[in-house]
User: What shape does this take?
Amino acid sequence: MNFRDLVQSASSSMFRSKARTLLTIIAILIGAMTITLTNGIGTGIKSYLNKQLGNLGATNVLTINLTNKNSSGPKSSNSPPAKYNPNHKTALIGGRGPGKKQLLMTNKDLSTIKAIPNITSAVAVHTLSPDYIMSSNGNKYQLTLMQQFGSTTAGMLSGNGVNNNNPNNQITVPSTYPASLGYNSNSIIGKTVEIGITDALGQQKTVNATVTGVQQKNLIGNATAFANTALGNQLYALQSKGLPTSIANEFTTIEATFPSNFTAKQITALQNQLTKKGYTGQTVKNQENTIFTAINVIIIVFDMFGVIALLAASFGIVNTLLMSVQERTKEIGLMKALGMSPRRIFALFSIEAMLIGFLGSVIGVIFAAIIGKIINTIGAHTFVKNFPGLSLLTFPVSTILIVIIGIMFIAFLAGTLPAIRASKKDPIEALRYE
Amino acid sequence: MDTNNVIVAKHITKIYGKGEAAFDALEDINLSITAGESVAVIGKSGSGKSTLMHLLALLDKPTKGTVLINNKDATTMKGTELDELRNKSYGFVFQQFFLNANDTVLNNVILPLKIARVGRKERNQRGMNALESVELTNKAKDKAGNLSGGQKQRVCIARALINNPSIIFADEPTGNLDSHTGKTVEDLLFKLNKEKNITLIIVTHDPDIAKRCDRQIHIQDGKISKWSNV
Ligand SMILES: Nc1ncnc2c1ncn2[C@@H]1O[C@H](COP(=O)(O)OP(=O)(O)O)[C@@H](O)[C@H]1O
Ligand SMILES: [Mg+2]
Assistant: This one.
C-alpha cells in the first residue's frame, strides 16, 4: 500500500466505530485547547509587555544599585540580619509588603562608576517631588516627575522625547495632561509650563519648562512625566535647599549609559565589571527577563493541566486502537496472506493513531482560537480596556504547529503498542475459522 | 527432477504445540505438483488438509522438511520474499470469504494490487476486468456486505485472479454455499484452470469437485493415505 492508501484505509477504519473515536478525540481536544490557550495568553502578555517596556526607556541604560548581600529584610528571610556597616547607610524602599533595605550611594560611587570603561555617562537618580504643573490657563495639577535617561523617541504620541544635552528645561507629559492644561496633544508641543516645588525650608519656588512631547498611554509609566537633565538638576537643587549636604547628596540609584551598539555579550561583560566593584547593574532587558521568567512558570503550571488531559487521551488512543486491532484481526490476517509486510501493517495503525491525534489537536486549536477571539473582543471593551494594544490571547503559527505536531507524536507513541501487536499477527491464526 | 514442478514438498512435518501438548498435524508428506494441474485435497475434518494447504501456500513454515517453489527452497526465503511471492503469484479463495463488508466490491477485489502499490487507475481497470470474468461488473460499487453468498465467493475469485496468479489455492470454496451456487463457483475455478492454465489446489469435501480434478490427494490423520486420478 502506498502512503495515500494507508491514510485512506486508516481513516475509514477510524470512522467505523464513531463513538469510540469521538471520545478519544474529545480528550485530545481538551488537552490541545488548554495548551493552546495558556500559551496564547502567555504570548499575548509577553508581546504586550515587550512593547510597553520598549516604551519605558532606552535599551542602553543600566540601572545601578549597591549590591546588598541581605536585601530581603528581616521579616521575609530566615537568615540572620546583616551586619551594620557604617560606610553604607540604608533606606527603606518599595511599596507593598515587607520593605526592602536599599544601600545609599554618594558622589564617591558616582565617580567610581564613571571611571569604568565603556560607561559613557552616569547620573545620580534623585527623587523629584514637584508640587504642581501649571499652564497659561492657570489651573494647577499634581505631577509625578522623573528624570529621563538615555535617549528615547519610542512611545511618543506627539512631539519628541526630551534632549538631555539641551541646556534649556524640557519636559514630556503623559497623554492625560494636554486636555487639562488647555491644549490638545499637538498644540501643547513647544508651549511653556510652570512647575512648582517646595524646598526643605517650606518655601515654594517655580521653574519653567518647554513641553517637547506627549507620551503614549502605557501600562507602567502612564502617570509619570519626564524631565531632561537641565530641568531635573534645577528642580533637585531647589528641593534640597536647606538640607544638610550629606543628605542632599545621598541617593539609592545611578543611571548609566553605554554605547547603544553594544552586543548582549558586551553588556554582560560590563555588568560583571560592576558586580566585581560591588554594584548591581540591570538593563531594561534584564528586568523584562525577570518578568518573563515568572510568566513562563505560570504558563508551565497551566500547561500541566493540558498535559494531564493528553496523558488520559493517550490511554484512550491505546484502548481505541487495541480494540480496532482486535476487531480487524481477520482483515489484518488477509492483508498479510495477500503479501502485505508487517512494517506496512505497523504503519497502517500508526497512521490511524496519528490521524486521531491530528483531528483532536486541530479541532482543539480551532476551539482555542474561537475562545481567544471571544475573550479578546469582550476584553477590549471591559477588563483590558485601559491597556490599549493588549491582545490578551495571541496564537502564532509556530505555536499552533508545535502543538499539532507534538500531539501527533504523542499519538504515534501511544499507537506503537497496538500497531506492533497488529504487525505480529499470524495470518494463519487470523484466517482460521472454528 | 521435473522442471515443470511448481510445488514440491519433501518430508514435510507439522507439529503444533510443544512437549506433552505436541500434536503431529502432518507427518512426512511428499508430493509434487506440475504447472497447470488441478489437484484436490480430500479427507475428513481435522485430518490436516488446511494445514497442508497453508504450508504449500507459504502461509506457514513446516516443522521439518522443505517446500520447493519453482525449484527454489521456500524455507530459507526471507519474509519480504515470501510476501512478494504470495502477492504476485498466488491467489487465495477461502470458505469464509474474508471480504471487507463495509468496503465496495471493487475495493475488495483490488486489495492485492493496493498492497503491491499498483497505481489507482490501473488497479481499478484491472479490478473491473476481474469482475467481468466473474460476471459482477454491475455490483462493483455495491458494499460487499450486501451481496449473496455465491456472489461473495465470486468476488473472492475475482480478487484471487486479479494479479494473474500462477497458482490458486482454494480452501473449501463451496463449503458455505448451496449446491446450485456452489456449482457456479466450481465451474468458474475450473474455467480459469483450463483457459488461463492456472494451477489449482482445492481443499474440498465435495466428491464432484474432487472428481473434476486431475489428481486427488487423500489425507488421513496427517498422512497421505493414497493418490488417485479419475
Ligand atoms: N494452531 C493449532 N494448534 C494446535 N492444533 C492445531 C492448530 N491448527 C490446527 N490444529 C489441529 O491440526 C489438525 C488439522 O487441522 P486442519 O488442517 O485445520 O484440518 P482440516 O482442514 O483437514 O479440517 C486438527 O486436529 C486441528 O485441531
Ligand atoms: Mg480445513
